[in-house]
Write a structure and sequence with these properties.
By secondary structure, the chain is of the alpha/beta class. It contains 12 helices and 17 strands. The strands form 4 sheets. Strands 6-9-7-8-10 form a 5-stranded mixed beta barrel. Strands 12-14-16-17 form a 4-stranded mixed beta sheet, with no helix packed on it. The longest helix is centred in the first third of the chain and has 17 residues. The radius of gyration is 21 Å and the shape is globular.
Length: about 375
């Protein structure tokens, strides 16, 4: 069985503005580790199971060059720019087409290609638990006609994540376990999230997936044919791309990818298929979706503050203060509680920490009023 990994890294990370920018979004930031970007972490995390030559990064055309520069020891030809923005279902169809184009030439059939779908913007530890979970999920997908995801055992009634309802309650031992998925639930209200937490049959949806190429293609044709029926055409066009690396992917794919609807893999396939299973995560996980994630990944000081960079904090508590101006500006915060302040060389963000999800709204307002200068 040929194992490959697709790392999705095309997002704009607007909730991490002003540090995250269009050409340097959050997956290229050192948010979890001062020495590594989240993308580099994702590559290194899966490398013990899947070598780099079999890892592909799917991103946008605007990010492809910067991603190649940010991971210089990664095969540059394995950084695949999408011809256009079409959400995760077409993205993963393109990834499958790339795999088929590359490995069918070596005589490997779709039923012998096992695909891990990962993201470049998560905090995960310990690595040993991650590898054990992924290996179990891939092994199950390789021996069953199944689409497998990883579910995170919730430790709080989180309203910012999607949930997975399982057919059976997992035991509390630290061994790989896989169960049938009954349903996917959208981000719940607080009352529903409390019920999910206490029931023991709901897991957070990690956004990681595992399947054999043939099962994925078959299910896509059944439930999302407007994308699934294009996979073979994209495979043939990708063979042209692989034989002529200097050509752009847009030229190789023509209008085939652009003709796909913009739709998520969760809504387009996972919520419809009857072949979905979930593996219980044997690791700690965070989605790293907005600035408040730093409270979970960094050690707070005695006043409950995350204090990074050149800052002066007076009578300030339970706050996130990050100064990335590199010595040009000092941030002084006085008498504040539960605020987030982020300073860069050309922008400042100030908001209550419970409003960090709305940073994306501010980015849209800045874009509308001032264009792309500060985006």
């Amino acid at each position: 069985m040929k194992r490959i990994a697709l790392i999705m890294a095309g997002g704009s990370g607007e909730r991490f503005w002003p540090l995250s920018r269009r050409n340097h979004p959050k997956q290229l930031l050192n948010l979890n580790n001062p020495d590594k970007s989240m993308l580099q972490e994702a590559i290194d995390r899966i490398a013990p199971l899947i070598p780099k030559e079999d890892i592909f990064i799917i991103t946008s055309e605007i990010l492809a060059r910067n991603i190649r520069l940010s991971v210089p020891d990664f095969p540059p030809e394995n950084v695949i720019p999408e011809p256009s923005k079409r959400n995760t279902a077409p993205c993963l169809a393109l990834g499958a087409a790339i795999a088929l184009a590359k490995y069918e030439a070596d005589g490997v059939s779709p039923k012998d290609i096992s695909i891990a779908v990962l993201t470049a913007d998560q905090a995960i530890e310990p690595e040993s638990g991650f590898l054990a979970t992924v290996d179990a999920a891939m092994s199950y997908a390789e021996t069953h006609d199944a689409l497998v995801t990883i579910g995170i055992v919730p430790d709080r009634p989180e309203t910012g994540y999607g949930y997975i309802e399982t057919a059976e309650q997992f035991t509390k031992n630290n061994e790989p376990q896989i169960a049938k998925v009954l349903s996917f639930r959208e981000k719940p209200k607080a009352e529903a999230a409390e019920k999910y937490l206490t029931s023991g049959k709901f897991l957070w949806n990690s956004g990681m997936f595992f399947w054999r190429a043939d099962v994925f293609i078959s299910e896509m044709k059944s439930y999302l044919p407007e994308v699934g029926e294009n996979i073979q055409a994209m495979t043939e066009l990708s063979k042209v791309k692989l034989s002529k690396p200097q050509s752009s992917f847009r030229s190789a794919l023509g209008g085939t990818f652009d003709a796909c609807p913009s739709i998520s893999i969760d809504f387009g396939l996972m919520e419809k298929s009857s072949k979905v299973a979930v593996a219980k995560a044997l690791f700690n996980w965070d989605d790293v979706g907005a600035w408040d994630a730093l409270k979970r990944s960094h050690q707070a000081d005695a006043s409950g503050n995350i204090d990074i960079g050149d800052n002066s904090l007076v009578e300030t508590t339970n706050s996130i203060i990050l100064n990335e101006s590199k010595g040009k500006i000092i941030a002084s915060v006085i008498g504040m509680d539960n605020v987030t302040v982020v300073v860069t060389g050309d922008a400042v963000l100030i908001c209550p920490t419970d409003k960090v999800q709305d940073v994306k709204k501010s980015v849209e307002d800045i874009r509308t009023r001032f264009g792309g200068k500060w985006i």
